[in-house]
Amino acid sequence: MTDPLVYATALLAYLLGSIPFGLVLTRLAGRGDVRKIGSGNIGATNVLRTGSKGLAAATLGFDIGKGVAAVLIAWQFGPDATGAAALCVVLGHLFPVWLNFKGGKGVATAAGVFLAYAWPVGLAAILTWILVAAIWRYSSLAALVAAVSSPAWAWLLGLRDGESMAIVVLIALLIVLRHHANIRRLIDGTESKISFGKKPA
Questions:
Q1: The Cα angle at residue 193 between residues 192 and 199, in degrees rounded to 5
Q2: Which ranges of the chain have pLDDT less than 50?
Q3: Each residue's pLDDT tens digit, 50-95
Q4: Which of the 8 DSSP states describes residue 30?
Q5: Do the beta carbons of residue 11 and residue 83 sit within 8 Å?
């Protein structure tokens, strides 16, 4: 029988992951509903389209932070709880109960999970994202490449046990599936590029 603590940490991680920081921060700042601009996503890339780099950076930090926090809390209760929390905090961000299960893409939260779970893997994934984004200026493409390469980074950096690899692969798969619309736009050549300019008045 599974330890009740595993269920408890999984639920806590899901609820933590489901906090829509991008939406909360933009509303508190008087920027309205971030779901009604750009891609409609609640993540940092879409928050950047409000014209506020500060809000985008804060959203990124909080979304990464909830992934880190979920894993570190669960770590105290053993590997099963940690694995469940790592997966559920990402699921919470993707499918938040507060927003009718319509959430973000999970990239920043997954990065936080990887940083806490195995920091070399997290760092490699983040650097991959930065490199791809800097060259091609597509946030979605950077996210997809970082996600797909994460299992390879995990293997190369020594995270080779079955449970850990399964967690990395599942999180990567969730991110790829959540980007299905972006993949279509990338193929069609209609995907928006990252812009660091200010929003026009």
A1: 90
A2: 1, 199-201
A3: 889 999 999 999 999 999 999 999 999 999 999 999 999 999 999 9
A4: T
A5: no
Number of H helices, E strands in the chain: 10, 0
Name residue 65's amino acid: G
Tokens of 100: 């009718």
Q: 114 and 36 in contact (C-beta within 8 Å)?
A: no
Which of 139, 49, 59 lies closest to 103 in space, CA to CA?
Answer: 59
The model's pTM: 0.93
Q: Where are the beta strands (DSSP E) in the chain?
A: none
Q: Which residues of 126-151 are buried (b: 16+ CB within 10 A; e: fewer)?
A: bebbeebbeeeebbbbbbbbbbebbb
State both tokens at 52. Answer: 């506020």
Contacts of 147 (CB under 8 A, 6+ apart): 107, 110, 125, 171, 172, 175, 176
Query: Could you give the angle at the alpha carbon of 70 between the alpha carbons of 87 and 63, nearest 5°?
Result: 90
Three-state secondary structure call for residue 196? coil
**201: CB partners within 8 A, 6+ apart:** none
